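Could you help me review a protein record that somebody else here produced? What it holds is a sequence and that sequence's fold in token form. I need someone to confirm that the token line plausibly describes how this chain folds. Take the sequence as given and treat only the tokens as open to question. This is what I was given:
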Amino acid sequence: MLESVSDRSYLQDGQILVNKEKCIGCKMCIAACPYGARSFNPESKVVEKCTLCRHLQEVDEKPACVKACCAGARFFGDIDDPESDVSKAIAAAGPENVHSMPDVGNKPTVRYILHKKTGEWQVKPPKML
């Protein structure tokens, strides 16, 4: 599924991506991002953000951060598939320990598992500059 978010960003399978060919480097999307997830690349003069290694997903591989996590603390998959690793991890953690960033109209799909014994979830994340 592909939807337009702006003329320089687009939504594909629930993930907002930057169209680097249309990006003019104005940085307005950096200011607008409620999560501070974008950064400016001074070499290419475009805005970038994590793509969850879309190039790996396209060949049925997991994102590099998931594959490289030595603690096995990162999961990736279809949250709607009860047999996926991510669904099993979320179910095992219990709903009181599963969090997401605030929904500001973009329906966030990333989940964070944080047990109360480990730390306290910030309901309102700090503003990024």
